[in-house]
C-alpha cells in the first residue's frame, strides 16, 4: 500500500514492517504485506532500501515516527545486519516513549536465542571496540523484544495459516490503537459521563471499576475511549486487550505471559518471572508507588485478575483499574464493588448508529417509505451495537431501491450473522453442561417469563434451576428485570435456537419447527427422546391433526406448548381424542385455542405444574377428580364457553388461578377460599348490576379479611397477595368505602432490585410471602358527569400502599382525618382522575414520598393544597381549577417546590397563571395546550431548566417570544394564529438554529410527513438537539420525542382503560 518512495506523500501509517530483506522479502514479508493490505491497513514496507551508512535515513525515521504499530520479523540473519539492529534500536526507543506498539514475529528462530543472543544473534560480528556502546544498546533491544507477545513460526501449522492469524491479530490491535473520537460514537458521551462519575478522579484512593455487559455490547470500545481520555494523566498506563483469547492449556504460562507483557508495557524493561506468584510480587514491588491506569479487557477467569491486579495495594495512590467482563460473578468474587452496566441501545440511538455507518459519506435516500425500511433494518439488531454495525456494513453501498433493501433485510431476518453468532456463543460455550441445559430451555420456551414460573417448571428435571438461571444473569446471557421477568436478548435467543437446530441430539430433545414436529409425530422418529415440544401454529403451512395417544406415548415429554397470535385465524391444528393424552412426565401443558370441550380422561400427569388453555373451547375442565398434586397455575383466560369450575379441592398446591374474560363464568367454588396456597386470582365477572359480584373487606380483632360473594357462593380469600377482578363489582369496606366499580386490583408483588454490587444469589424472590398490599386500583372505565358517587369516608387499613388508582369513581370528597389517604406514609403514586371533589386535603403535603399525582378530568376541582414534594403533576381538563399554589406562599416556599413536569392542558380557569408558574423554578416539562392566551405567560422566561414546552391548539397564540435559553423542544400543533415571523428572533441567537414548517409549498417533498396537516402543524427544534440529528443529512421538522410525550399524556374525556 505504501513504499519508501511514497513516504514523503503519506505522513501516517498503521504498520511499519521491519525485516532482513535477504531472508524474508520474497517469502513471509511479501505475504504478510499483501494480507495487511487486503484488510485496509496502511503499511510501510521499504522495498528499495540500501543497507549502507551508519545512520537511519530521515525518510525511514519519519515513516517509523508516523506509524502506530511496528511488526518486526526476526529471521535467522536479522542480527547480522547492522542496519536491522539500528532500526530495531529506534523501534524500541519509540516503544519506551509510548508512541509505538511492537509485535515480534520469530520466523524460524527460537525466542530464547534472541533473548540470550545465541547463534546468529550473538552479535560477534559487531564486537569491535568502536561499536561497544551500540552493541550494548542492541543487546538491550533484543532482550526487550524477545519478551514481547508475538508469533513463533515453529509452532504454526503452515505459513499461510500463520500469516492469516498474524494479519487478523494485527488488524485487531491496529483498530484498538486508533484514537477513538467519542463524540462521533453514538451514546459514547453518556458512557463517559457515567464512568467519570464512578471513577472519582479527584480521589487518591485506588479504585477498581468493572464494565459489565453481554458480548458485542461495546465494552471494549467504551474502555478504549476511556483509556484515550484519561490515561495521559497517569505516568504509568497499560491497556491489556482481549485477555480471554490469551488462555491455552498451559494455564500458568499464560498468566506469566500476561504479567510480563503488562510490566514490559508499563516499565519498558526486560523482567524475568519464574512463577505466577513471583509475577505478583514483582507487580507489587514495581508498581506499588506508581499512579497507574490499567485496563484489563475481556477477562473471563478470576485467576487472570488475581495474577494482574488482585489487591489494591499493588498500585500507588490514585490508581484506577478497569475490568471489562461478561461475568458479574467474577467481579463479585474479585471484590469489585463499583460496576458500570452497559445496556443495549434504545431504538433512537440504534437508528442513528445504523444510518451513520450505512450511509457514511452519502446522503440518505429520499424515496417514499425508505425511512420505515431503515427503522426496520436498525431494529434487526435489537440494540446490540456489534450487530447494528454488522448489518449496516452488509447493507452499505447498496442502491436506494426499496426492493433491494427489502430482499437484503429479509435475508438478515432469516439467519444470524456468523460473526455475531461467534461473539455471542463464547459465553454459552464457557458454561458447564447443566447451565447450558437451562440456557437452552429459556431460549426455546421461557424468554420473558417470570423467574418464579421458570424455576417452578424446571425444578423437577433440573433441581438447581434457580441457581443456574441466576448464573446465566451473571454471565450476561439473560437479564432479570425489576418485576422478576427473565429477559434474553433476541439475538442471544436466536443463537440458542441455532445451536439446537445444528445439533441432531438437541434437535430431537427440543422440537420447534412445525415440519419437524409433524414428521416426528407421524413416524415417531426420536419421539421418545423429546423433552420439549413448542409449536407456533401461525407458522404451519397446512392443516394437520394429532392423535392424543401419540402425545401420550412421548414418555419423556416435559413441556408441551402449542401457541398462536390472539388475533390470528383459527388454528389449523386438530386434536383427535382417541386415548390417553397427557404423559405422566408432563410439567407444562400450554395449548392456545384448545379445540376440545373437556380434557381427555385417562392418565393423571402427577408432575404437571401448569395448565394454560387460553381462548379454549372448554365447557368444563375435566370429569372426575384427577390427581394434580403438583399443579400450581391454572389459566383458562378467554374460554368463553366455560360456565363453572369443577371441584378443585384435591389440588393442594394451586397458587395462581386466572379466569379473565370467561364471559359465561357464573362463579368459583367455595373450596378456592380454603386454599391457603392460592396467592393470585384474576377473573372477569359479567353478572350485570342486579347480580354484581360483591367484593368486600371486613375487620376482625387481629386482621382484615377479603371476600368475594357471587349469587350462589361466598368465598373468603385471606391468603391472596395478588387479586385482579374485572366486570360488574360492588365494592365494600365496612360502610365507609363502598360503591360500584368495573375493575378492582390489589397487589403485594415486590420488585427485584439487582444492583451492580449485589450477588444474584442474594437477590430477593419476586413475590414476598407477606399479605400486605402495596398497590390498589379501583376503577370505572369511563367518566360520567353526575354519575353515581363512590362513598369515601374511610380508607382500608393497608399501610404499605405505594400506588393507588381511584379512577372515574365520581368521588366527591377525599377524607383528611384518621383512616384517610394522608396516613399512607409510603405512598409514591396517586391517580384520582375522573372524580368530583372540589379540593384535596391540606394534609397531603405530609405524604413526603408522593412524587406522581394524576388529576385528569377532575372537572370540579378548584384549588390544590401545597404539594411541594410532588415531581410530576397532571391536571388535564381540570376546567374549573383556579389555583395551583397558595396565595400566602412566600419566596422561600417557592424554592421548596420540587415539581419537574406539569401538564395544564385545557385548564383555562387558572388565575394569574404567570405568577403561579413562577413557583415552579425546577420545571423541565410544561404543557399549556388548549389555552386561550395570545402571548405566553411572562414567567416562562425565568424557568431556566425548562426543556420541553407544549402549546398545542392554542388557537389565539400569536407569538412565542422570551423563552428560556434551556428550551430544546417547542410543540405548537394547531396554533392557527402563530405566524412564521414570530420565531424569527431565535435565528438571531448565537449558536442557535431554528427549523420550522409553516406551509407545505416552502418545503421539499421529503420534509412532508403528513401534508394534510402542515398548514397548522408548527414544530420548532432548537439548536442543542440539532447537532444530534445532523447525521440525517436533511433538516428535521417534526420533533417526534416531544410529540410522543404529549400524546401519551393526553387522556380522552370519555374513556380510561385500567392497567390490567
From TrEMBL:
<dbReference type="InterPro" id="IPR002182">
    <property type="entry name" value="NB-ARC"/>
</dbReference>
<dbReference type="InterPro" id="IPR032675">
    <property type="entry name" value="LRR_dom_sf"/>
</dbReference>
<dbReference type="InterPro" id="IPR035897">
    <property type="entry name" value="Toll_tir_struct_dom_sf"/>
</dbReference>
<dbReference type="Pfam" id="PF01582">
    <property type="entry name" value="TIR"/>
</dbReference>
<keyword id="KW-0378">Hydrolase</keyword>
<keyword id="KW-0433">Leucine-rich repeat</keyword>
<feature type="transmembrane region" description="Helical">
    <location>
        <begin position="1025"/>
        <end position="1049"/>
    </location>
</feature>
<keyword id="KW-1133">Transmembrane helix</keyword>
<dbReference type="InterPro" id="IPR042197">
    <property type="entry name" value="Apaf_helical"/>
</dbReference>
<keyword id="KW-0472">Membrane</keyword>
<keyword id="KW-0611">Plant defense</keyword>
<keyword id="KW-0812">Transmembrane</keyword>
<dbReference type="Pfam" id="PF23282">
    <property type="entry name" value="WHD_ROQ1"/>
</dbReference>
<dbReference type="InterPro" id="IPR044974">
    <property type="entry name" value="Disease_R_plants"/>
</dbReference>
<dbReference type="GO" id="GO:0016787">
    <property type="term" value="F:hydrolase activity"/>
</dbReference>
<dbReference type="InterPro" id="IPR011713">
    <property type="entry name" value="Leu-rich_rpt_3"/>
</dbReference>
<dbReference type="InterPro" id="IPR058192">
    <property type="entry name" value="WHD_ROQ1-like"/>
</dbReference>
<dbReference type="InterPro" id="IPR000157">
    <property type="entry name" value="TIR_dom"/>
</dbReference>
<dbReference type="InterPro" id="IPR036390">
    <property type="entry name" value="WH_DNA-bd_sf"/>
</dbReference>
<feature type="domain" description="TIR">
    <location>
        <begin position="11"/>
        <end position="174"/>
    </location>
</feature>
<protein>
    <recommendedName>
        <fullName>TIR domain-containing protein</fullName>
    </recommendedName>
</protein>
<dbReference type="GO" id="GO:0043531">
    <property type="term" value="F:ADP binding"/>
</dbReference>
<keyword id="KW-0677">Repeat</keyword>
<keyword id="KW-0520">NAD</keyword>
<dbReference type="Pfam" id="PF00931">
    <property type="entry name" value="NB-ARC"/>
</dbReference>
<dbReference type="GO" id="GO:0007165">
    <property type="term" value="P:signal transduction"/>
</dbReference>
<dbReference type="GO" id="GO:0006952">
    <property type="term" value="P:defense response"/>
</dbReference>
<dbReference type="InterPro" id="IPR027417">
    <property type="entry name" value="P-loop_NTPase"/>
</dbReference>
<dbReference type="Pfam" id="PF07725">
    <property type="entry name" value="LRR_3"/>
</dbReference>
Amino acid at each position: 500500500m505504501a513504499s519508501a518512495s511514497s513516504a514523503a506523500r503519506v505522513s501516517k501509517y498503521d504498520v511499519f514492517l521491519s525485516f532482513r530483506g535477504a531472508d524474508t522479502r520474497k517469502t513471509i514479508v511479501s505475504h504478510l504485506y499483501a494480507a495487511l493490505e487486503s484488510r485496509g491497513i496502511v503499511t510501510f514496507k521499504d522495498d528499495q532500501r540500501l543497507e549502507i551508512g551508519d545512520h537511519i535515513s530521515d525518510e525511514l525515521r519519519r515513516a517509523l515516527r508516523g506509524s502506530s504499530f511496528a511488526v518486526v520479523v526476526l529471521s535467522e540473519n536479522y542480527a547480522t545486519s547492522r542496519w536491522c539492529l539500528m532500526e530495531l534500536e529506534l523501534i524500541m526507543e519509540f516503544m519506551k516513549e509510548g508512541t509505538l506498539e511492537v509485535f515480534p514475529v520469530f520466523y524460524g528462530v527460537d525466542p530464547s536465542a534472541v533473548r540470550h543472543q545465541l547463534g546468529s544473534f550473538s552479535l560477534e560480528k559487531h564486537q569491535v571496540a568502536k561499536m561497544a556502546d551500540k552493541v550494548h544498546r542492541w543487546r538491550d533491544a533484543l532482550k526487550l523484544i524477545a519478551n514481547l507477545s508475538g508469533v513463533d513460526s515453529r509452532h504454526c501449522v503452515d505459513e499461510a495459516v500463520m500469516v492469516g492469524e498474524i494479519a487478523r491479530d494485527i488488524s485487531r490491535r491496529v483498530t484498538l490503537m486508533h484514537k477513538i473520537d467519542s463524540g462521533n460514537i453514538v451514546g459514547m458521551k453518556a458512557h463517559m459521563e457515567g464512568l467519570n462519575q464512578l471513577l472519582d478522579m479527584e480521589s487518591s484512593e485506588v479504585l477498581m471499576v468493572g464494565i459489565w455487559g453481554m458480548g458485542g455490547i461495546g465494552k471494549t470500545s467504551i474502555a478504549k475511549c476511556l483509556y484515550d481520555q484519561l490515561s495521559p494523566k497517569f505516568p504509568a498506563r497499560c491497556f491489556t486487550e482481549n485477555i480471554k483469547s490469551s488462555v491455552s492449556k498451559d494455564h500458568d504460562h499464560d498468566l506469566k505471559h500476561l504479567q510480563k507483557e503488562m510490566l514490559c508495557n508499563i516499565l519498558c524493561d526486560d523482567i524475568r518471572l519464574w512463577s505466577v506468584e513471583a509475577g505478583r510480587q514483582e507487580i507489587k514491588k514495581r508498581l506499588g508507588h506508581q499512579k497507574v491506569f490499567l485496563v484489563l479487557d475481556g477477562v473471563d477467569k478470576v485467576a487472570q485478575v488475581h495474577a494482574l491486579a488482585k489487591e489494591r495495594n499493588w498500585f500507588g495512590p490514585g490508581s484506577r483499574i478497569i475490568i471489562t467482563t461478561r461475568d458479574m460473578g467474577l467481579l463479585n468474587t474479585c471484590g469489585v464493588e463499583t460496576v458500570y452496566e452497559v445496556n443495549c441501545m434504545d431504538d433512537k440511538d440504534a437508528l442513528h448508529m445504523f444510518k451513520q455507518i450505512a450511509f457514511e459519506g452519502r446522503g440518505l435516500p429520499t424515496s417514499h417509505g425508505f425511512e420505515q425500511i431503515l427503522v426496520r433494518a436498525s431494529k434487526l439488531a435489537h440494540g446490540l451495537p456489534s450487530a447494528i454495525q454488522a448489518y449496516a456494513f452488509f447493507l452499505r453501498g447498496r442502491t436506494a431501491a426499496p426492493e433491494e433493501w427489502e430482499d437484503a433485510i429479509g435475508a438478515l431476518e432469516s439467519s444470524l450473522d456468523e460473526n455475531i453468532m461467534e461473539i455471542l456463543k463464547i459465553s454459552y460455550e464457557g458454561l458447564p453442561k447443566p447451565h447450558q441445559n437451562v440456557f437452552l430451555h429459556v431460549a426455546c420456551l421461557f424468554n420473558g417469563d417470570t423467574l418464579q414460573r421458570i424455576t417452578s417448571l424446571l425444578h423437577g428435571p433440573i433441581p438447581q434451576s434457580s441457581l443456574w438461571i441466576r448464573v446465566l444473569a451473571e454471565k450476561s446471557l439473560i437479564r432479570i428485570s425489576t418485576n422478576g421477568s427473565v429477559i434474553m436478548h433476541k439475538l442471544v435467543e436466536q443463537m440458542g435456537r441455532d445451536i439446537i437446530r445444528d445439533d441432531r441430539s438437541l434437535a430431537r430433545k427440543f422440537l420447534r419447527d412445525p415440519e419437524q414436529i409433524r414428521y416426528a409425530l407421524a413416524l415417531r422418529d426420536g419421539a421418545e427422546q423429546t423433552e420439549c415440544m413448542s409449536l407456533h401454529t401461525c407458522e404451519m403451512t397446512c392443516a394437520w391433526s394429532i392423535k392424543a395417544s401419540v402425545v401420550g406415548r412421548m414418555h419423556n415429554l416435559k413441556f408441551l406448548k402449542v401457541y398462536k397470535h390472539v388475533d390470528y385465524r383459527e388454528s389449523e391444528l386438530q386434536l383427535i381424542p382417541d386415548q390417553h393424552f397427557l404423559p405422566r412426565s408432563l410439567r407444562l401443558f400450554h395449548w392456545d385455542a384448545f379445540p376440545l370441550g373437556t380434557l381427555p380422561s385417562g392418565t393423571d400427569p402427577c408432575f404437571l405444574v401448569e395448565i394454560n388453555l387460553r381462548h379454549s373451547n372448554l365447557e368444563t375442565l375435566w370429569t372426575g377428580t384427577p390427581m394434580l398434586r403438583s399443579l400450581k397455575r391454572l389459566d383458562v383466560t378467554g374460554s368463553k364457553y366455560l360456565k363453572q369450575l369443577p371441584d378443585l379441592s384435591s389440588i393442594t398446591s394451586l397458587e395462581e388461578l386466572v379466569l379473565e374474560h370467561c364471559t359465561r363464568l357464573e362463579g368459583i367454588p367455595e373450596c378456592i377460599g380454603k386454599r391457603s396456597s392460592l396467592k393470585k386470582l384474576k377473573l372477569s365477572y359479567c353478572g350485570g348490576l342486579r347480580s354484581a359480584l360483591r367484593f368486600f373487606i371486613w375487620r376482625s380483632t387481629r386482621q382484615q379479611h377479603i371476600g368475594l360473594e357471587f349469587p350462589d357462593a361466598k368465598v373468603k380469600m385471606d391468603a391472596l397477595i395478588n387479586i385482579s377482578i374485572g366486570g360488574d363489582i360492588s365494592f365494600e369496606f365496612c360502610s365507609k368505602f363502598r360503591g360500584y366499580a368495573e375493575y378492582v386490583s390489589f397487589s403485594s408483588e415486590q420488585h427485584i432490585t439487582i444492583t451492580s454490587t449485589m450477588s444474584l444469589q442474594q437477590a430477593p424472590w419476586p413475590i414476598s410471602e407477606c399479605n400486605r398490599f402495596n398497590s390498589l386500583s379501583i376503577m370505572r372505565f369511563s367518566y360520567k358527569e353526575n354519575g353515581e358517587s363512590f362513598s369515601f369516608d374511610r380508607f382500608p387499613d393497608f399501610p404499605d400502599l405505594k400506588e393507588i388508582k381511584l379512577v372515574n369513581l365520581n368521588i366527591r370528597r377525599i377524607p383528611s382525618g384518621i383512616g384517610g389517604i394522608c396516613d399512607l406514609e409510603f405512598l409514591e403514586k396517586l391517580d384520582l382522575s375522573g372524580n368530583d371533589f372540589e379540593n384535596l386535603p391540606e394534609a397531603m403535603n405530609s405524604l413526603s414520598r408522593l412524587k406522581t399525582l394524576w388529576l385528569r378530568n377532575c372537572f370540579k376541582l378548584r384549588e390544590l393544597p401545597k404539594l411541594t414534594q410532588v415531581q410530576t403533576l397532571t391536571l388535564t381538563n381540570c376546567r374549573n381549577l383556579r389555583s395551583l399554589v397558595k396565595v400566602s406562599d412566600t419566596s422561600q416556599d417557592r424554592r421548596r417546590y420540587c415539581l419537574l413536569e406539569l401538564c395544564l392542558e385545557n385548564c383555562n380557569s387558572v388565575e394569574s397563571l404567570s405568577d403561579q408558574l413562577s413557583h415552579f423554578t425546577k420545571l423541565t416539562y410544561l404543557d399549556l395546550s388548549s389555552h386561550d392566551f395570545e402571548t405566553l405567560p411572562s414567567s416562562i422566561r425565568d424557568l431556566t431548566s425548562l426543556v420541553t414546552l407544549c402549546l398545542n391548539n392554542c388557537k389565539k397564540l400569536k407569538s412565542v417570544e422570551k423563552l428560556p435559553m434551556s428550551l430544546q423542544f417547542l410543540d405548537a400543533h394547531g396554533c392557527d394564529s402563530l405566524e412564521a415571523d414570530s420565531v424569527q428572533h431565535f435565528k438571531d441567537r448565537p449558536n442557535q438554529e431554528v427549523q420550522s414548517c409553516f406551509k407545505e409549498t416552502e418545503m421539499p417533498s421529503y420534509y412532508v410527513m403528513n401534508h394534510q396537516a402542515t398548514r397548522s402543524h408548527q414544530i420548532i427544534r432548537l439548536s442543542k438537539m440539532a447537532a444530534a440529528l445532523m447525521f440525517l443529512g436533511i433538516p428535521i421538522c417534526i420533533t417526534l420525542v416531544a410529540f410522543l410525550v404529549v400524546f401519551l399524556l393526553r387522556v380522552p374525556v370519555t374513556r380510561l382503560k385500567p392497567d390490567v
